[in-house]
Amino acid sequence: MGVWLRIDACFNFAPDVHKPECDNYRATVRNAFCHSFQYRTALQSFVQANQGFSVGFVYESRRWQIEVVSAIKQLRMELASGKTILIVEDEQDVVDLLTFSLRKAGFVTSTTTDGAVGLHKARTEKPAFIILDLMLPKMPGLEVCKILKTDPATLQIPIMMLTAKADEIDRIVGLEFGADDYVTKPFSPREVVLRIQAILRRSEGKPDEEHLSAGPIVIDPARHEVSVHGKHVDLTSLEFKLLRTLMQRRGRVQERDRLLNDVWGYESIIDTRTVDTHVRRLRKKLGKAANVIESVRGFGYRLREN
């Protein structure tokens, strides 16, 4: 809200003759910031105010001109500095709650209540993260997730399913379709933000990390690429991190709880079978090379040394 306070103050510098008009624009911008949380709408309204008055203020209020330009630049910088989270959810109160919490954490949000529109936005806007409801108009969330996770252009975008469907089978199906996380309603906004931050933090590769190899499997961390027998394999961001973690600790058993913490980024606050689901999907994509990932009954997994 710091930027809003500065923008709000700018209206105080307007000459008296324009005060009524400024009050109207002030109300529009305040509403955009404080109620609908649409920063871009606020920016458009503020730019409109500036364009509508700038010619008349050239000689009347130089201070207004300077403050307007400075505030707009700062708002644009704020919009460009945060990673974009796409929220595809048909309950407006949930959208508002998530938007407020994510903006407070420094993210920029893009929203839609329609599954088909959400798919289009994901493809065109390339957000850093997607929060996806399951029961959506036009196109269900599972279908959206499946399409995005089978498209090389979008499969690396992490997806969190946020839904009222809490049955175990729903969780398993969601993860099987490629979701990186699954959160049920009602939820804690703070927990959702922490989960997103953890997943994004672990999706950032280390450019100076050397190639990793295990038999026919080769990982290029800098390029975020995996190949088997020289052939490129498309993995989701979590599948990539899971494989990289196992390869970095080759020969050592990795317990499910530890994998949840190191790969997903949080303690075992979700069922450890999430790990089993992702390992199963990873093995399927590795094909004949899948046997390098060994199951250790009662403990977890390890990558074979030979």
Name its key features.
Arc Repressor Mutant, subunit A, globular, five-stranded parallel sheet, Rossmann fold, alpha/beta, 12 helices, 3 domains, 12 strands, 306 residues
Put the structure in a nutshell.
The chain is of the alpha/beta class and about 300 residues long. Helices cover about 50% and strands about 15% of the residues.
CATH superfamily of the largest domain: Response regulator
CATH architecture of the largest domain: 3-Layer(aba) Sandwich
User: What's the total number of strands?
Assistant: 12
Strand order of the largest sheet: 2-1-3-4-5
CATH class annotation of the largest domain:
Alpha Beta
User: What's the order of the H and E elements?
Assistant: HHHHEHEHEHEHEHEEEEHEHHEE
Give the end-to-end Cα distance, rounded to a whole number of Å: 57 Å
Overall structural class, as computed from helix and strand content, comes to alpha/beta
CATH topology grouping of the largest domain: Rossmann fold
Mean residue pLDDT: 76
Broad shape: globular
Fraction in helix: 40-55%
Oligomer: single chain
Total number of domains: 3
Radius of gyration: 24 Å
The residue ranges in which pLDDT falls below 50 over 5 or more consecutive positions are 32-40, 51-61, 77-81
Tally of helical runs: 12
Beta-strand proportion: 15-25%
How would a crystallographer describe the biggest sheet?
A: 5 strands, parallel
Describe the structure.
The strands form 3 sheets. The chain has a 5-stranded parallel beta sheet, sandwiched between helices. Strands 6-7-8-9 form a 4-stranded antiparallel beta sheet, with helices on one face. Strands 10-12-11 form a 3-stranded antiparallel beta sheet. Helix 1 (2-10) runs antiparallel to helix 4 (62-81), helix 6 (115-125) runs parallel beside helix 7 and helix 10 (237-248) crosses helix 12. The longest helix has 20 residues, at 62-81. Strand 3, helix 7 and strand 4 (159-163) form a beta-alpha-beta unit. The chain is built from 12 helices and 12 strands. The protein is an alpha/beta fold and 306 residues long. The chain has helices spanning 2-10, 19-34, 39-57, 62-81, 92-104, 115-125, 141-149, 168-176, 189-203, 237-248, 256-264, 273-286, and strands at 84-88, 108-112, 129-132, 159-163, 181-184, 212-214, 217-220, 225-228, 231-233, 254-255, 293-296, 300-303. Residues 32-40, 51-61 and 77-81 have low confidence and may be disordered. The chain has 3 domains: 2-81; 84-203, Response regulator (Rossmann fold, 3-Layer(aba) Sandwich), CATH 3.40.50.2300; 212-303, Winged helix-like DNA-binding domain superfamily/Winged helix DNA-binding domain (Arc Repressor Mutant, subunit A, Orthogonal Bundle).
